[in-house]
Write a structure and sequence with these properties.
Radius of gyration: 12 Å
Strand order of the largest sheet: 1-2-3-4-5
Number of helices: 2
Largest sheet: 5 strands, antiparallel
Structural class: alpha+beta
Helix content: 25-40%
Number of domains: 1
Distance between the termini: 16 Å
Shape: globular
Order of helices and strands: EEEEEHH
Strand content: 35-45%
Length: about 80
Amino acid sequence: MSLTIFREAGYRFFFFSREEERMHVHVISGDGEAKYWLVPEIDLARNYGHTRRQLKQIESLIEAHYDELSGAWKRHFTG
């Protein structure tokens, strides 16, 4: 099961319910899929299909929505 946090610019930002403990977010679009670590800093973990330009845009969106993402993670995974 996955939990969508937000959608913007053609990207869907989400978590899987049963995953590793380190805070991260998955991002999917029609062009590919990526995973970003959120701690200790925003960092690309994996990329399948997104261009460098798209990755830069995705990272900017993560930065802009960081509080929303980290808050959703904490609510979802720590109750």
